[in-house]
């Protein structure tokens, strides 16, 4: 299916905004300028905030030192399930502020206590820094769930793009060591294979909102010379699938250079006996879930995510 007209309109508007403000592609701007561009772009297009009973900024005691996080508590009776969320941004850009609208939406729709956790970014902090911070965040959430008004037996972990890949890596480590238990992993347009060798990387590698050159730049910033892209904690779509891998939902955009690795991961999970759900959104772009308020067609494709979160929340 070709790009949906809503996706075309979004691409055109994004390109016009970049040109008007002197911004290029991520790989041509460098890390700091890219971070600024993302903050400004999201601030301009942010939807009205979903109202919460409580929003609190705090810190997770990670091995690298305190890591900022933001806790969202919706207007709902507890104890509630707890969702740990990792933002996207190629392991280089993004943060808890930039994903505020997405985490509020999840907290309201599930409903659940949502912990939006930051993690160290490249190129200043290369792999395995993000994975270490992600695992420390899961440990903290599991230990703190009751104090947060949540149910420690109903912990879900998810994220968008690089945050989806980080989710898969953290769940892999948790499965290998026997905990904490995760009720559901949800991967939204995830980046699961940094080798960048699958056909969709070339098919949608230019002109679809996330270029091949940007992916290579993100990879270089994240890995440097210290790790291989085929490491299963870097590219968790690669085998093996550990025993204890949680049920997993993948939300995938058809016109996304990262599409094929998500499809391959879903098949690998199923072959290993893991309950895996897959929703492919025709004609939509990478990270459409984040931009659903700007892309009308995208909103209906969030229904499977909302349903899966509510089902896992029900226990």
Descriptive account of the structure:
The protein has 315 residues and is an alpha/beta fold. It has one domain (5-314): Alpha/Beta hydrolase fold, catalytic domain (Rossmann fold, 3-Layer(aba) Sandwich). It is 39% helix and 20% strand. It contains eleven helices and eight strands. It has helices at 5-21, 26-29, 31-45, 100-109, 129-144, 162-177, 199-203, 212-223, 259-271, 296-299, 303-314, and strands at 54-62, 65-73, 80-86, 113-117, 150-160, 184-188, 248-255, 276-285. It has an eight-stranded mixed sheet with strand order 1-2-4-3-5-6-7-8, with helices on both faces. The radius of gyration is 18 Å and the shape is globular. The mean pLDDT is 95.
Give the secondary structure arrangement, pairings included:
Blueprint: H1 5-21, H2 26-29, H3 31-45, E1 54-62, E2 65-73, E3 80-86, H4 100-109, E4 113-117, H5 129-144, E5 150-160, H6 162-177, E6 184-188, H7 199-203, H8 212-223, E7 248-255, H9 259-271, E8 276-285, H10 296-299, H11 303-314
Parallel strand pairs: 3-4, 3-5, 5-6, 6-7, 7-8
Antiparallel strand pairs: 1-2, 2-4
Helix pairs in contact: 5-6
Record keyword descriptors for this entry.
globular, 11 helices, Rossmann fold, eight-stranded mixed beta sheet, 315 residues, alpha/beta
